[in-house]
Write a structure and sequence with these properties.
With 90 residues, the protein is of the alpha+beta class. The protein is 48% helix and 28% strand. It has two helices and four strands; from the N terminus they run αββαββ. Strands 1-2-4-3 form a four-stranded antiparallel β-sheet, covered by helices on one side. The longest helix is centred in the N-terminal third of the chain and has 33 residues, at 2-34. The protein is globular and about 35 Å long.
Length: 90
């Protein structure tokens, strides 16, 4: 049983490392396209995806352009209080 616990802990750490790495890649892409404009970026386990809200509201064309520049498949997820929201699939 201890070996199983160690393996499960290692798998969870690897998953979080991957998620953090992907969030960094997304942040880099957004900064390149829009400058510093991420209000919130977080992993949501129930959706098994990264949710991101910007500090700006984008029109449809700009949102589509940003989705094309992101390192993960992404969809427009509505407008939040602070800005446009996206869902990024792992």
């Amino acid at each position: 049983m201890p070996n199983e616990f160690i393996q499960n802990s290692w798998d969870n750490m690897t998953d979080w490392d991957t998620i953090w790495h992907k969030q960094d890649e997304v942040r880099t892409a957004v900064n390149a396209v829009l400058g510093e404009s991420i209000w919130d970026i977080s992993y949501v386990s129930s959706r098994q995806a990264i949710e991101m809200e910007l500090t700006v509201h984008l029109d449809e064309e700009a949102a589509s352009h940003l989705c094309c520049q992101l390192p993960l498949p992404a969809d427009y997820d509505g407008e939040g209080y602070r800005g446009t929201k996206f869902i990024l699939y792992l």
